[in-house]
Amino acid sequence: MALEELIEQDRALFDDPVARSVWEWLTTRYAPRRLTLNTSPQLDLGIDSIEWLNVTLEIGERTGVDLSEEAISRIDTVRDLLREVSEASAARSASTPVEQPEEFLSSQQKHWLRLHGPFLSAVARGLYALNRLLMRVFFVCE
């Protein structure tokens, strides 16, 4: 299938490297079958519930994208699979941890991250030990 034959929305799917990677993997895994974007994974490729588990695990290993059960239930064609993978990839990259999370904290929030010195640390440890002791005594008495 030539990319020039695809409509613009489908071409955009292949611009996503994760979706393209999944497409290339599908074409090698299901090589004996004719694979198009309208191919039904269930009917044309014979993917049942157990095979969906294998497919999603393989996609997760290859791309780092985990498809939820809800996402899998929306998949009727290979196009839908590529779209779900692309959206999950975009959501994952949008939620990646930031390099300097302190930049997003207010000065009041930063106050709680500061170390408070050896004296306050010793007081905190003592209060924690006292709390554990009291809880043990309380629960033993019941």
Topology, please?
Blueprint: H1 8-15, H2 17-29, H3 49-63, H4 69-73, H5 78-94, H6 107-111, H7 117-141
Helix pairs in contact: 2-5
Query: What is the averaged pLDDT score?
Result: 84
- What's the tally of helices? 7
In total, the number of strands is 0
H/E series: HHHHHHH
Low-pLDDT runs of 5+ residues are none
Q: Termini distance?
A: 74 Å
Radius of gyration: 26 Å
The percent range for helix content is: 55-70%
Structural class: mainly alpha
What does the main sheet amount to?
Answer: none
The coarse silhouette is elongated
Proportion of residues in β-strands: under 5%
Give a written overview of the molecule.
With 142 residues, the protein is an all-alpha fold. It is 62% helix and 0% strand. The protein has helices spanning 8-15, 17-29, 49-63, 69-73, 78-94, 107-111, 117-141. The longest helix is centred in the last third of the chain and has 25 residues, at 117-141. It starts with 7 loop residues before the first helix and ends with a helix. The mean pLDDT is 84.
